[in-house]
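User: Okay, second chain of the day. Same drill as before: sequence in, structure tokens out.
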Amino acid sequence: MEVARFTYESASCRIEDNGYTWLTRFVAKEKRVGHGTGLMKAVVEWADANDKELCLVVGAYEDVTDGLTEDQLISFYQRYGFEIYRFVHPIEMVRQIN
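Assistant: Same drill. Structure tokens below.
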């Protein structure tokens, strides 16, 4: 079930809840201009304000990530407090309640 949608410039994502709160469809159409960063800051603020733990699946898909590797995606998510929960494909990450 969708809980929330976020947009920031060319970036967007959804928050879904199926017993766990999942960050899904995180896409920034323009890369390396701060849109993903702005979006992630808004998502993290929302999660903190609502006492939500966030889960996500790392996906390095050429059509979505424009060539970003899984390592680059993991590094990006780690800057916002996500930790690897399951290091098999697909890689899952979780951000604990702050």
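Helices lie at 35-49, 62-65, 70-78.

User: Thanks, on to the next one.
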